[in-house]
Amino acid sequence: MFNIDSTFTLNNGVKMPALGFGVFQASPEETVTSVKEAIRAGYRLIDTASVYGNEHEVGEAIRQSGVDRNDLFVTTKVWISEYGYDDTLYGFERSMRKLGLEQLDLYLMHWPVPRDWERSVDTWKAMVRLYEEGRIKAIGVSNFEPEHIERLAQISSVLPAVNQVELHPYFNQSDLRAYHKTRGIITQAWSPLGGVNIYESAKNHFTRSVLEDAVLEGIASRHGKSTAQVILRWHLQHGTAVIPKSVKPARIAQNADLFDFQLSDEEMLAIDNLNTGLRGGHVPDEGDRNLFPAVVTD
User: Is 68 left (phi over 0), alpha (psi -120 to 50) or beta?
Assistant: First the structure.
């Protein structure tokens, strides 16, 4: 039975909290208050990225929280403007300086960038070096497809421990999750509540709000829970790590209140059947500097 302290064991033996807190699109001011609130509510994993522009505030919130650093699991990501061997090493030091940390729990490649694969490979090699030196407890990827991971496996004996991907009831990535199991990779869901279908609504894709789905509302009503709680519980019961984001204290606490109910097999299947196969965010192969021109600076 899951509880707020439940963890998944990564392929190198490191334990990662199953429930985490994300700060994507949170302003610097919101980041400090929301991360402190999340830690107060019991979250022990905080997920950020260099391109989010709030690593310093995540570090400040951790320092103000009063919780021992060793009891927290911090993730950040190397952005595509930082790709390349030396650039990644520098980008890592910049992130650590902003976070105010000596050691990082998890470092992720933000996108695969297959159109510039050599630089992607050099980034992975730099991350492996940092991992082997003990600067990072585990390394992984984000938005990678199986073919990208297999290409990494051809040049490195170190496989990603985590792949953080778009995953919610309308895009449940069942094939990718099955592949991850064969490789011992933990699936971690970004946009676990389907918010990407709203904030990327300018794109030509499926935009119906997952939180307003009638099937989910019915299940939530039976359990006396919110649709968000049902969705997050569905993720956990599938063995998927989650990093919901909110800046509202009540919602932050509610999203952590997942451990006094359990979805039945029939309810899990009903949610599985909501899958549309339509991605709300960008296709992994599209990720490059043309699509994402942002540059991380000091």
Answer: beta
